[in-house]
Each structure stands twice: as structure tokens, then as C-alpha cells.
Design goal:
Radius of gyration: 24 Å
Helix content: under 10%
Shape: rod-shaped
Number of helices: 0
Distance between the termini: 102 Å
Length: about 130
């Protein structure tokens, strides 16, 4: 010990990890940052990225938490921090749904979207 009562000659390394609920260690809020999704057309291929930010930034899991996706479209994870809504819409109408993202620590964010699927524009009328 030195003259002040401190132990001499010992190096101490302190490692800290952020824990959910520990004051001062909360990550930024997990949010879906995509403002809106484009409308689609019946029978025409559709693809739209949905991006999240915040949370721990790791292990994002995407889901539809409410409402109805347009028939023919599916939500698939494209990797952190993006999911993709894609497919070929089969039914005309307006569809409201909520997309949710959860990170590895259990933080969640969600956002409601509305997509309108318009009728196909092809001809095919009687001659």
C-alpha cells in the first residue's frame, strides 16, 4: 500500500455492458424510419424496403402486428436494419396494417401503413 492506503502495482480493467433497464444505458428508441409505402397495381410485381433504426441495432425480427397485408404480398427480413414487402398483389383495395420490429434485447417499434392496390391497367375489352 502507498501512504494514502491505496494498493500499488495492481492494474484493474473495468468492462461494462449496457443492460436493459439500467439507468443511463438505454439505447436510442427503436423506430421504423420508412415514412410511407408506395401504392401498387393488381398483377404487377411490388417491392418496397422498410427500414428501422435505433435499439441495439442487432437481431432485428420483423412482423405484421395488426391489419391485413394486400393478398399476394409478404413481409420478409432483408437483414439488419431492413425488411422488404414484396410479391404480386392479387386483389384491388385499400389495406391498412402495422409493421413491428423487435431487436435482440426485446425493444420494439411499430408503424402503421396503408397501401392501395389499383386495378390492372391492361386492355382486354370486347372488340
Amino acid at each position: 500500500m502507498d501512504k494514502n492506503g491505496r494498493i500499488d502495482g495492481i492494474d484493474v480493467t473495468l468492462v461494462t455492458n449496457a443492460f436493459k433497464g439500467l439507468p443511463g444505458t438505454e439505447p436510442p428508441p427503436l423506430v421504423i424510419s420508412t415514412a410511407s409505402l408506395a401504392n401498387g397495381q393488381q398483377g404487377v410485381a411490388y417491392s418496397a424496403p422498410i427500414t428501422a433504426s435505433g435499439g441495439t441495432g442487432q437481431g432485428y425480427v420483423w412482423s405484421q402486428s395488426a391489419g391485413t397485408l394486400p393478398p399476394g404480398l409478404i413481409l420478409s427480413a432483408s437483414g439488419n436494419p431492413t425488411a422488404t414487402l414484396s410479391g404480386t398483389p392479387t386483389t384491388v383495395g385499400s389495406y391498412g396494417f402495422t409493421i413491428q420490429v423487435r431487436d435482440a434485447a426485446g425493444y420494439t417499434g411499430s408503424k402503421p401503413f396503408t397501401i392501395t392496390i389499383a386495378p390492372s391497367g391492361g386492355g382486354g375489352g370486347e372488340q
